[in-house]
Amino acid sequence: MRIEKDSIGELKIPNDAYYGIQSYRASQNFPISGTQVHLEFIRSYLLLKKAAAKANHDSHVLDGKLKDAIVFAVDDLLKSHFEKHFIIDAYQAGAGTSQNMNVNEVIANRANELLGGERGSYYPIHPNDHVNQSQSTNDTYPTVMRLTSLVLSKYLKSSLDLLAEALNQKSLEFDSIVKAGRTHLQDAVPIRLGQEFSGYRDTVIQLSKLLMQAQDALRELGIGGSAVGTGINVPEEYPSLILEELKILFDDADLRSAPNLFQSMQSQLPMMHYSSALRLIALELIRIFNDLRLLSSGPNDGLGEIQLPSAQPGSSIMPGKVNPSLLEMGTQVCFKVLGNDAAMSFAMQAGQLELNVMMPLMAQVALESTHILTGAIDQVQKLCIRGIEANKQKCEQYALQTSQILTALTPLLGYEQVAALTKEAKAKNKLVLDLIKDKKILNEGQISSLVNLRGLTH
User: Which residue, 85, 90, 78, is CA-closest to 105?
Assistant: First the structure.
């Protein structure tokens, strides 16, 4: 063990630990969930510290030797299983100071070790004076939160695009299959199964566009604002220099500095914008997943219009039963995203004066939602959507049975007469076309020309 000191006192720290006293103290204060922040968040924080070291050197406030040690330490950590050095619970002190100091201490100890020093000596590189130079938790944490959300959201965007592609393939494959439409869960005029799936496809395409809009909001960064937005202890050229470094490290040329650093610290509107996009994605996917479960219900005693691929046995007691397990999983994930968005809403509005201290919760729920939503969409797309098959016979049977195909005759016979025929067909449990033939209202040729099932769907 080694002894380290901070403004509160002394603590024993394991000799082999790269974290220091502030990290350890926080780990003892907040043993809440047993989970750390998303690893991509830590990776992004490490990259930001690398960018800061370079910007500080170029601003002539950090010695080249120290800059190189910090940069090398970050690169070295990123090549290793760095997560073991980060011991702060996801639910921690406000604003994320503990997380920032965990990063500062780990980098400082590794950098000093590379320079021949000892862990815990914090010489020649100090976690606050050098690794955290020209920074505050108050501008680095929200910057990392937005950057990490951007990184993970790119995977989500790809997943949505693949889902749209899979739905498009099904819309083309099922384009010739006519079925009964349903409104209010009751029989309606015919529709093609492919048209139904094209609606799902275009919804997902719209969701992808909404996500891109939210991504753009995340690109506005308040780095350089320091503690309250005034840029105290920050060299004049530092904000533009670190921004250029971040563009390179995160491969995003559209990153930009917030026009008002006070606003960017007070308000976390971009995170709420992003969470709202995740909520809308979840809501629409729930609707689509529920539709697919309905369409596949039965299969013998339900709608049974489509057949989902069998992913696993569905019952521990009923042999041969297969459930829509992928869609059930996806729906549960979407419910979790909705709950996380509610938590984001409370956290976002809780900002006071110059800072919103609820950012650790915001980061946790945004990154969790993005991660699980991406995983769920991937699995549903690969193991469910692409394997869907249509029951063409049942679809066309329902199309013929629906009394609403008589809607096509309304211009000829009038609404009242068609309504009466529809009612009579239901009462006699008879196909409406057979009833028309029996009553000799129309001959075969007229019926064929007026009630062409596929023609009714154009």
Answer: 85
